[in-house]
Write a structure and sequence with these properties.
It contains no helices and eight strands. The chain is an all-beta fold. The protein has one domain. The N terminus is likely disordered.
Length: 115
């Protein structure tokens, strides 16, 4: 696994409460879990590459697709309801989605989450 400081820089122009850029159809890839918001690492300055051995146990399944309002625990902006989200071993500030052969990393952001 390669992790290069997962710092997320989000500009003031981003609609922070919704996880969306300029409209409901132009969402950043984000999800909320346990009171924290995670954004896809490909949307950050330091993308992360994960391997299957990096995945831990199931963290959650997406409960609701939401790009039109403030994220709540269990929400994702672009993932389908029922998508499995996994912990990443030895990376407490990261979650992942196994999407076929690809593994997509999500890193902690500072977007607010409504419980």
């Amino acid at each position: 696994m390669r992790v290069v400081g997962a710092l997320v820089a989000l500009g003031a122009g981003l609609l922070v409460s919704t996880g969306c850029r300029s409209s409901d159809t132009d969402c950043i890839d984000a999800l909320s879990f346990d009171g924290r918001t995670y954004v896809e690492s490909d949307d950050t300055a330091d993308p992360v590459t994960l391997e299957p051995d990096d995945l831990g146990s199931l963290a959650m399944k997406v409960a609701r697709t939401n790009c039109g309002g403030q994220l709540r625990d269990g929400d994702a902006t672009t993932l389908a309801v029922g998508t499995s989200i996994y912990f990443v071993l030895s990376e407490p500030d990261m979650l992942a989605v196994a999407d076929g052969p690809a593994i997509v990393a999500f890193v902690v952001s500072d977007l607010p989450v409504r419980k």
